[in-house]
Amino acid sequence: xxxxxxxxxxxxxxxxxxxxxxxxxxxxxxxxxxxxxxxxxxxxxxxxxxxxxxxxxxxxxxxxxxxxxxxxxxxxxxxxxxxxxxxxxxxxxxxxxxxxxxxxxxxxxxxxxxxxxxxxxxxxxxxxxxxxxxxxxxxxxxxxxxxxxxxxxxxxxxxxxxxxxxxxxxxxxxxxxxxxxxxxxxxxxxxxxxxxxxxxxxxxxxxxxxxxxxxxxxxxxxxxxxxxxxxxxxxxxxxxxxxxxxxxxxxxxxxxxxxxxxxxxxxxxxxxxxx
Length: 275
Description:
The chain is mainly beta. It contains two helices and 24 strands. The strands form five sheets. The protein has a seven-stranded mixed β-sheet, with no helix packed on it. It has a seven-stranded antiparallel β-sheet with strand order 2-21-18-23-15-14-13. A hairpin with an 8-residue loop joins strand 13 and strand 14. The chain is globular, with a radius of gyration of 18 Å.
């Protein structure tokens, strides 16, 4: 597991484009036949992926978590962005088709990722936060997610937000997770942007290639940008706005952890706030 320190507002102002990538972007996800994990100091999140092929992949712990197993004191959210597969939790099988989600509660000892087919292997993306209580694990199908239609074709940001791991569907300690799909001909997400003063947020862009996404972050008075490729994640501290514009439509998984689980708890910005 890699360790990723963050920075403060002043640190971001001094960063080069490469410094921003090295600090905020996770670019080693979905290596075939491997599990990848990065520990982010912001809210002690772990961002990772499992891309099983012929051999099942078991989620390991790490000495820096100081736990006997990964979910001993953590909860886990998983979204499958690949072909069909399943995840075994202490031996119990949970099937996940493309864009299905799975919440894994604190206390699950064995987490194993398996692809149903080598021709179209599963690609499991996961985010984990510390958990103070144990809640039941549960699969949420794509069709079960809460759907929000957002944006306008005139401003090229018409999109569908699917909230899969959220209050009312799944009880969690702090994790909120889902994904957003840009409709054809739309390229902007979350514009005007916002911040979350009470939690951090992580975006993982997928179904991007061959396009690219320019992700905008930092303070409104000093926006910074970083170009994102398919299957890359970028995290935002609570003081950083987060938005993006692509060279074509795309999808992204969003996840949050912090003081509360209210999706609408955000500090809105206006276009005039951007400098």
